[in-house]
Design a protein that fits this description.
The chain has about 250 residues and is an alpha+beta fold. Helices cover about 70% and strands about 10% of the residues. About 40% of the residues are buried.
């Protein structure tokens, strides 16, 4: 995790940058979900990235405020109050767990842990992708909307590739990679549960919008998995670059 003094201007700058990134990335790619009057997006990737790189407080602020602004700008203001709280909790949990890495576990246990998580992530991605994201899909990129056909085989192959990649990275490069995956998945589960409870108990009383809460559970799980797939390798790349960045300043 990148250490930044919380009282320094750099800390505020990083927080502002990642808040903007969360908002922009959420807006750039969205898929409307009629059953819940919500949408699928890849903003989760920036929530995870901010928390993994800069800790729970940057993750919480960037995740909560950035995602809430995206809801408002995209016309989903009925989700904005929930998003502020849910995404803030998500970012805070990911950043906190990342800092609490249990260093006492042996390398062989870490490898097995990462292998199991890799298989789980691959199965979730393949299963949810083939069920909910295959066939004709309407996608919004910024102001552009278009139809896209995604075959079942795409998600099956992607699920297998992700499972192999996570497991192989844990065995060959970083046995503790599994803990970072676990941190992201745990935060993502908070997001899935939070929106389910909001849609089930609060969305209609507050905004008179009926939603089939269970319909968005697999959508949000898919959002979590794809966000993790984007954020995890970027995090590792940034960490690898840090020694070179420090050397270039000297």
């Amino acid at each position: 995790m990148v250490k930044v003094n919380e009282k320094s201007p750099v800390y505020l700058t990083v927080t502002a940058i990642f808040t903007a990134l969360v908002c922009v990335v959420t807006i750039m790619f969205s898929v409307y979900v009629p059953a819940t009057e919500g949408f699928f997006n890849i903003g989760e990737s920036m929530v995870f990235l901010s928390a993994l790189l800069f800790g729970p407080y940057v993750g919480a602020f960037a995740g909560g405020v950035g995602s809430m602004l995206a809801d408002i700008l995209l016309g989903y203001s009925h989700y904005a109050p929930a998003t502020l709280v849910i995404k803030a909790c998500e970012g805070f949990l990911v950043g906190t767990l990342k800092k609490k890495n249990p260093k006492l576990i042996s390398e062989s246990h870490w490898k097995f842990f990462t292998l199991i998580l890799g298989i789980i992530v691959g199965l979730l991605l393949g299963g949810i992708g083939t069920t909910y994201y295959s066939g004709d899909v309407t996608i919004t990129l910024g102001a552009q909307t278009f139809q896209l056909y995604i075959p079942l085989e795409f998600w099956i192959l992607l699920g297998v590739a992700v499972a192999i990649s996570i497991s192989a990275f844990g065995f060959l490069a970083d046995p503790e990679f599994g803990w970072m995956v676990f941190s992201v998945i745990s935060g993502g589960c908070i997001m899935v549960l939070g929106y389910f409870l909001y849609q089930m108990f609060l969305l209609y009383p507050l905004f008179k919008i009926e939603a089939v809460a269970v319909a968005e559970v697999p959508i949000n799980i898919g959002q979590m998995i794809i966000g993790a797939i984007v954020a995890l390798p970027i995090t590792k790349i940034v960490w690898r670059m840090l020694p070179y960045l420090k050397e270039s300043k000297n």
